[in-house]
Amino acid sequence: YIENSNPSEINKNYDELVYILREVIKKTCGLEIVQQLINRIFEIYRLPQNSITITGIEDLMEVKNMLETKTKIWEKEILEKGREEGREEGKAEGRAEGFEKGIKKGIDIGLEKTAINMIKIGETDSKIALCTGLSIEQIEQLRIRIKKENQ
Question: How deeply is 83 buried, as exposed, middle or buried, from its count of CB atoms within 10 A (0-12, 13-18, 19+)?
């Protein structure tokens, strides 16, 4: 259409052409298409290639490429930061859980030792259970273990 139009016909449809160019530029490869179109117009009408418009479009393409590159870098940095935060959070949770388990294990060992001492001084299972919170079954198991150790 443009190749077969004279300048006055192009002027009549100026707004439509500008709208089309803006929409094309919004597309993924739009700048390249506009660059090719303008290059073709300059070629057909033998216009000088040092136009401000051409330079502007080349600059836009360069900015677009730089932004794409920078966006990829930012995405990687954000992803890595998220991973690092996740690792740190996991370590903290692991330490807290390990600490909690260690405390519980220590308390259990202490209660067991108390129960063993109470068994050795002849306390009843019900009194040991009351003082330590251990079940009667656990106390019976401790009595069996003490007998085996003493044999």
Answer: exposed
Is the overall model pTM greater than 0.85, yes or no? no
Angstrom distances, CA of residue 12 to CA of 25, 44, 47, 124 = 22, 20, 21, 108
> How many whole angstroms separate alpha carbon 119 and alpha carbon 122?
5
SS3 of the chain: CCCCCCHHHHHHCHHHHHHHHHHHHHCCCHHHHHHHHHHHHHHHCCCCCCCHHHHHHHHHHHHHHHHHHHHHHHHHHHHHHHHHHHHHHHHHHHHHHHHHHHHHHHHHHHHHHHHHHHHHCCCCHHHHHHHHCCCHHHHHHHHHHHHHHHC
Pick from 68, 40, 69: which is nearest to 54 by CA?
A: 40
For the chain, domain boundaries:
1-49
65-82: pLDDT as tens digits? 776 787 788 788 888 888
